[in-house]
Design brief:
Elements: H1 2-26, H2 29-61
Length: 63
């Protein structure tokens, strides 16, 4: 399950970098904001994945 999420995160980061490059080329603030939000969502998805993994492993160990 980790591999598809990592691939999706890499795609989100690549898309955000593309948006930020386009924003820099066109001097467009809204594209820069969109790229930042996409990058933040990729980071948040990884954080939630690892938190849930730790939580589930803790719950499995309970007697």
């Amino acid at each position: 399950m980790l591999i598809p999420i990592l691939i999706f995160d890499v795609a989100l980061v690549a898309w955000s970098l593309h948006l930020m490059q386009e924003a820099f080329d066109q001097q467009e603030f809204s594209l820069m904001l969109a790229g930042t939000l996409v990058a933040l969502s990729a980071a948040a998805m990884l954080v939630v994945y690892f938190l849930m993994g730790n939580c589930l492993s803790y719950l499995i160990q309970l007697p």
